[in-house]
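Ticket #4471: structure output looks truncated?

Reporter: J.K.
Steps to reproduce: submitted the chain below (534 residues) through the standard prediction queue, then opened the result file.
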Amino acid sequence: MSASREKKLRQQQRQQQQPKKEKRNFNKALTRLAVIAVALTLVCLLLIGAGLPHRAFAVYSVGNRGLSAAEYSYMLMENYLRYHDFYSQYGMGWDANKLLEDQELTDVRDGILSGTDDQLHELLLLEMDAGEISLDPFYNAVFEQRLEEMTERLKNKTAAQDFYGRGITMEIVENMTRRQLLTQQYFAQWRKDTQAGYDIDKLTEVYRANKDDFDAVSYQSFTVSGTAPEYPEEATDEEKEALDREAKEAVMAEAEDYRASIGTEDSFVEAARQYAARMAADSQPPPDQDGDPDGDANGDQPEEPLADDEDEQPDDFDAESVYTRDVEKSVATAVLRDWLFDEARRPGDTVSIENGFNVVVARFTERGRQDVLAANVRHILVMFEEELDEEGKPIGSTEENRAQTLAKAEAILEEWKNGEATESSFAALAFAKTDDGNAGDGGLYQNILPTANFVPPFLDWCLDRNNQPGDTDIVETLHGYHVMYMVNNDTPYWQIQAGELQVNEDYDARIEDLKEQTPFKTNLFPGSWFVKRI
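Returned output as attached by the reporter:
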């Protein structure tokens, strides 16, 4: 074979082998790519499983501040819990066994999402406004307790990730809890400082613009009771209406007779007394056939001696029951509200107002600005431990128990004195130690007036003008011993009302301005992929 022919043959062989080689190379490359793709997929799945993208990618931002998908998901699901608790508690169509998207309450999901966005917008704006601050003793105590609760809730990591999303960690819970409490603390201090800055002219202006809401009225009243008529079996609607009208006219006529006798405060009390006496007489059982009203036909029981004069008859009528004092419009009884707060109302005015088949008879006493001084106090209640009898019924506390309770109260007060001895440190102790139901407010009771429904020793201490801001004491009541802290008690209540209304309006206007200046951005790519779905 010639050299040229051999060379040509080799070229033909190479040409025949080239596609096979290229195919082998392509298959190798494809295999490598598949391996790499599988490896990348596994890495991505591992990263997603560990929640790293949830914590790395921002999904919500305000200005230069942002929240990761995991942080946003945490706040979203906390709001979900609040909705769940509310709707479940009040039986408003919420089915705890259904997913959110399957609930009959179709607007709930949108409410949770928009509520979360608004809440976070405000939180980040307040953060920027507050600057660098730290938790005071009270808010720090709240922070520590919430962390304990969340640590318990997150013990089951799988369940926690199923609920809050894969990115949830205690670090995120701690961070978001701290940020929430810092903004709450800043807001509370801002309100306090802003309200303290209003001068008397500003407060007077606000009061005059809202007199109907701020003023309080006092009046006397009693109710003349009627009875709904019994309808004949075949009565028509017109006949029923006629019977209703007749029954109402009868009770109104009786009420008007009583009102006609009313002129002064004392005459009103007397009219109410006479009506109570008539009602008591009507409720007595009829005498038996022998004329014995007690049903003792044989007269075996000795009779009570009769009084010589009608005025000497036993009288258990409570004259105070006709008085209502210092009531604001928002809590005044609905049937009298418009009449009481009519600008034409004058002391001594009387009225009979229909209320169903009853009629309320009332006499107006006064209306005015609430100049009474209001008190704000904090307290820590150490309750008595009641002893039980053999049947398990409470029989009160023993002297030994009372002494032990007092010792506990004294120890708490001493602990406060040995610490920072500030209002905030007292609030922190109240949060941790009080037996009262206002621990979450640091034992705070606000705007205490003489009409407040507190036991007398407690109320007396609150209203004692000798107690100055920062003063402390231990007060005994039927509930136990109260460790007391006076916040303040020197501001007329109308000024507090005006200041609270104005500061609310100022805050709303301020936060709306901030929202317009610095809007929020959400659903940022790719962070939105990792937000918990609801």
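Triage note (M.O.): checked the attachment and the full token line is present. Confidence is low (pLDDT under 50) at residues 295-314.
Status: closed, working as intended.
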